[in-house]
Amino acid sequence: MGKAKKTKKKKEQAPTGLLSVRDAEAEADEAEMQIEVLTDCHSGTIAGIIEKLQCGGAEAKECACNTVASLVLQKESIDLIAKSSVLRIVAPLLIDESAQVRMSAAGALRNVSACGGMDICESMVKFDTLTPLLSLLKKHYSSPWVKDKDKQLKSAKSFVDTHTETFIHAVHLLWNLCESSSAAVKVFNTENLLPILVPALQAETHGLDAAIAVARCCHAVSEDNPQFAMVANSTDLSSTLTSLIGGEASTPAHLLLKCLAVGVSLNICGGSLECNTVLPVMKVLSASLALNAVAALADLSKKLHELESNGGGEQIEFKNPEADSIIREIEVLLDTQQMALEIITNLCCTDDGDSDEWGDLDSSDASEGIVDCMDVDTEENTVPQVAEKLAPEIHEAFISEAMMQKVVSLMKKLDAASLEKLTQHSQTQQLVVKHQRVLCRALLCVNNVVSNLTPDDLGGHGGLWQLWSSIGCEALALSTARDVEFLEACTCAMRAILQRLFEMKSDKFKDMSPGDLQLLSEIGLQCSEEAVRANIIRILGTLGCLLVSDVSSMDAIKGIGLFLIDISSKDTSLWVCAEGLDAIFDLFGQDGAIAEEASRAIGLVDKLKTLSPVFKTKTQQQRKSLGENLPVVMTARSNLIRFIKYKEGQSK
After folding, report:
1. The pTM is what?
2. CA–CA dist 198, 221 (Å, integer)
């Protein structure tokens, strides 16, 4: 007998069209009830998991671990699992007698560490997940072993190499824990794990997935870890890495392994390259950048469309091995390019050595250590024609491999149709996120590379101007968007390119429209990320310095000046306020009738006099919390008083 349907009473509409207080409270209670039901449902599932883990046989334990591995893919389940005793019960199963249980337990804990974030990983370390994990690796992988290729070939569709899969899960778990917890890194250092892991870098014998897992783990652990470098010298790691870097690469996965090998080598050597390794390293990076991710994503979008058309127009989710393989390959391709871009960025990162100059800035005599911003003669800037910051062999390899052009090519965005199609599917949406991350890394790479190459290397004035324009269009288009990470990367690159154009005394900016300057100002005033606001300050300040000698740019100079005063007075970040003041000193501290007239027109000195005591008070209140921004803030505070006196002297 079927259930009778309840007739729902239609809710009366309030005359105003708005919810009444009673209705709003009712909806809130209903939403809260739904959350409670969901929580109760998950709690019941977790209770069932615990029962299977504690009381069941090998098959029940395996099933429970697989359930945990699936559950943590849902955000609402992660906290419930972390707060329960599940992780404490699953961890010892890493050394269970059953190989299937060990593999399932390792897979579950791997997923928890990957989806749970840093806090969950810290908790897993506190729960002593590392003890059974290390026992697993030492007991089952200390002796030589190989991937079981023969059985896999005999039954390719159904065969799972449990021994290898368990190793991959275990190493991924170790990588995630070490990346999130310094305590885990200390354990790694003391437990002599490298002799167990290094042999698995041989992809021919242990499989490519195992090799990449070990390389990822070593790359994370070796960063800023001198003890790792010491231990590495007592193993075959260095020679293995050299062999990997110089080997053949037929797929994106092989290139990812080679990039990771480069990254580990750089970490061991303190970020420097030996002369004889520069060329093979640059060839690896060049090949990685040459991969066409946009084309691969566009092809995947077309395949999605075909599958939907064959399915009657309904949205589909990938369920077949071929499609899964395509997604994994593109995922690896994007990981490879991100890794290559990060390595190039670090190779071009120079240490200015200024950190020791600020040791006494928090004393009461800080004003004596100020920078004389009024003594800068901007007309004497020369265009450096030698890439002095980059080692000659690296500079030569950069040019021969056309690295800059390849980095710029990665800033190409996916077409709108492909983007829309890929974001409609859960399996491919993550690829869009990864591709956006590659775009950001490419922009940050441009930021570092531009300051290390000569203008000729960068395509001369025309090439730099074209690059500035294209990136500027992207930034202005994002003026109301929420993609703060991409906006920060854009403004970082714009700032670096503009500095080179400033050194070349570019006259192109005279044609910038007031609308473009206004949009930049709005980004600087409205963006939630302080790094973006600071970048906009420097961009507009530099533009002002370029335009200050042109009488026709008077309105632009006044507009930039008003923006700088506004942000220096009102920004919530004292560091951003200091950056604004510093830009004011650079722009209006120059001799010349245009700068003087513009400063008088906007009432610069009076506004700075009003700002000065407020800025001084905030500096005193926040000094201890400024951290690395203390030098900028203290210098701005000191120079503000001197600048006001300087401008008052000019007007007499």
Report:
1. 0.84
2. 13
